[in-house]
Amino acid sequence: MRRVVSTLAIAGCLVAGLPIVAFSQGLPGLTLFSGVKSENQLNYRLDFGGNTNSWDRYRMRIERKRMKVAVAQFSIDYPDYYKGTFDPKSVELMVNDKKVAIQEVKWEKENYVIEVFPKDPVPAGSNVELIFSNVKNPSNGGMFYFNCRVLSPGDVPLLRDIGTWIVTIS
Asked: What is the SS3 assignment for 8?
């Protein structure tokens, strides 16, 4: 009887642990040698695991402490060896956990940049989440640096660096 109970307990722990393992594969994890200082790394989540050549949803987050100015444009550049695709019509912007209207999303494939223009400027000190749905992950796995820069309304038209999402596709 003890053997059966022990076997069921071990099997239950293994089965209960599977969702945690699957969930954690879409998170950034620990990056030791990236060339990007830890204070400049931004958090993200890949909803469907970040597997090569599959569809995914990217949740790119910016903490309120990094939002030092109001933002009229988010500009996200990525490396030329990232061969995934984006759907500009499936981009959402969440500010302090509320969906806000987007005026326009431009994906410049040849320049490796995505620009998101909110309808109204995002206030300084806000938690921001850019959600990219219908993303086709590249067929080549690896580590990809997505750099976020912002433009403030009425400011000198220079993009300010916010940080980098280090996205891993495997």
From this structure: helix
User: Sign of the CA dihedral 91, 96, 99, 102?
Assistant: negative
End-to-end CA distance of the chain, in Å? Answer: 43
Predicted structure pTM score: 0.79
With a cut of 80, say whether residue 4 has pLDDT above it.
no
The full set of domains in the chain, from first to last, is: 2-169 (2.60.40.10)
DSSP 89-102: GGEEEEETTEEE-E
81-to-16, 35, 59 alpha-carbon distances in Å:
38, 18, 21
Instruction: Please tell me the distance from the alpha carbon of residue 91 to that of residue 104, in angstroms, as a whole number.
Output: 10
CB 101 within 8 A of CB 118: yes
